[in-house]
Design a protein that fits this description.
The chain has 227 residues and is an alpha/beta fold. The protein has a single domain (4-224), classed as Rossmann fold, CATH 3.40.50. Helices cover 38% and strands 22% of the residues. The protein is built from nine helices and eight strands. The chain has helices at residues 14-27, 31-35, 42-47, 66-74, 87-99, 118-122, 142-151, 172-183, 193-204, and strands at residues 4-5, 56-60, 79-84, 106-110, 127-133, 153-164, 207-213, 218-224. The protein has an eight-stranded mixed sheet, sandwiched between helices. Helix 7 (142-151) links the parallel strand 5 (127-133) and strand 6. The chain starts with a strand and ends with a strand. Keywords: Methyltransferase, Transferase. It comes from Rhizobium loti (Mesorhizobium loti).
């Protein structure tokens, strides 16, 4: 599967793209096998998308394509679009999507989730659903991703997020080990995620829902734009 890529620019954050390619050049081959044990709540997010008939769905930080493939099966009438800053991950995602026979319904593009032009990348400006699964914890300036995602929503659209929480209900030793391990992959749980989402909801007049999963291990959130 071919992917669209915008020309490099100062806003593209080429250094972060290079970092992610370095991290996942080899990890991408075993990513889905290993991550299924600790990226909890992803399938719950997909089930909660409730994509409308003939809807459009954008995933920011689509990685290996695992989530888009599952969502495309779950919502067979929808069209899907994936964005990632890593060319290595997009290569893996493209091959997986082709194997599943979904290339006609899924379009991938390389870009920065904090600042992207959906019209230039996909030929579509607004989406019924946007979701971000365990990517905000890897994106520098992740707050801008939230704003960009909301700006890309159509009327009655919704943004869905799952990511690491504060692990406040888990033993201290577990939190220490987990965060130490995540740091090796440049992953940092976003302590202020809930506050940022609440602030963005108020700013846009949107409805906000937030759930704590597995004793704080993960957070699941939704922001729905008012009609």
């Amino acid at each position: 599967m071919s992917t669209t890529e915008l020309p490099a620019s100062p806003e593209f954050k080429a250094n972060h793209a290079e970092l992610m390619d370095g991290v996942y050049r080899w990890q991408r081959h075993i990513y889905d096998l290993t991550r299924k044990y600790y990226l909890l709540g992803r399938d719950r997010l997909i089930d909660g998308l409730e994509v409308p008939q003939d809807g459009t769905v954008l995933e920011l930080g689509c990685g290996t394509g695992r989530n888009i493939i599952l969502a495309a099966r779950r919502y067979p009438d929808a069209r899907f679009f994936g964005l990632d800053i890593s060319a290595e991950m997009l290569e893996t995602a493209g091959k997986a999507i082709d194997r599943e026979g979904l290339s006609g319904r899924v379009t991938l593009a390389r870009g920065d989730a904090t600042d992207f032009d959906a019209e230039a990348l996909y030929g579509i400006e607004r989406f019924d659903r946007v979701f971000v699964s365990y990517s905000l914890s890897m994106i520098p300036g992740w707050e801008k991703t939230v704003s960009a995602a909301l700006a890309a929503l159509s009327a009655n659209g919704s943004l869905h997020i799952v990511d690491f929480g504060r692990q406040e209900g888990l033993p201290g030793w577990f939190r220490t080990l987990l965060r130490g391990w995540l740091k090796k992959f440049h992953v940092t749980p976003r302590e202020s995620l809930r506050e940022v989402l609440e602030s963005e909801s108020r700013r846009t007049g949107a409805t906000f829902r937030f759930r704590t999963l597995y004793r704080g291990y993960a957070w699941l959130a939704m922001i729905k734009i008012a009609s």
